[in-house]
Amino acid sequence: MIRYHIFLVEDDVYFDFFYKTDLLNQFFTNYMSDPNREDLRKQFNYITCPVPRDQINTTKQNIYITERIITVFSNQQLILDNHFLNQLEKLDRHCFIVDHTNKKYGWLTPKKLKFNWSKLSGTDELDNLLNQSM
To answer: Domain of 66?
Structure first.
């Protein structure tokens, strides 16, 4: 069985460490091996956001939620069904995932809004569309 940990990361950490996934993985691994170490716990609480338990449905998969960690157990390498991904996207947070079983890690990237540029006839429509997405 494969074990995944998903962390909701603060915006400033996401922007500062987007290309430093090795460092984040090393930190999360160190924290998971010794969560009672005070310096690691303080850094972990600064880097991560609390998980809003009421916004995630855990009935479809083996999903366990603590205050700041979402743990998913799966028999397959593809853990995230569309329903679960949609729930994560609605949280509007940056998600970092660590697969301890296969030693893989990285950012979960939300779906981007797709524009059909050919249907936009003028700049007013584009301005309205951009204002709605912000």
So the answer is: 2-131
Residues lower than pLDDT 70 in the chain: 59-61, 76-82, 109-134
Give the domain CATH number at 76: 3.30.310.250
C-alpha dist (Å) from residue 47 to 19, 43, 101: 16, 6, 23
Reference 91, options 77, 64, 70; nearest CA is 70
| CA pair distance 105, 89, nearest whole angstrom | 18
pTM, two decimal places: 0.76
Give the separation between CA 28 and CA 103, rounded to whole angstroms: 12
- Domain count for the chain, please give it: 1
- Per-residue pLDDT at 124: 52
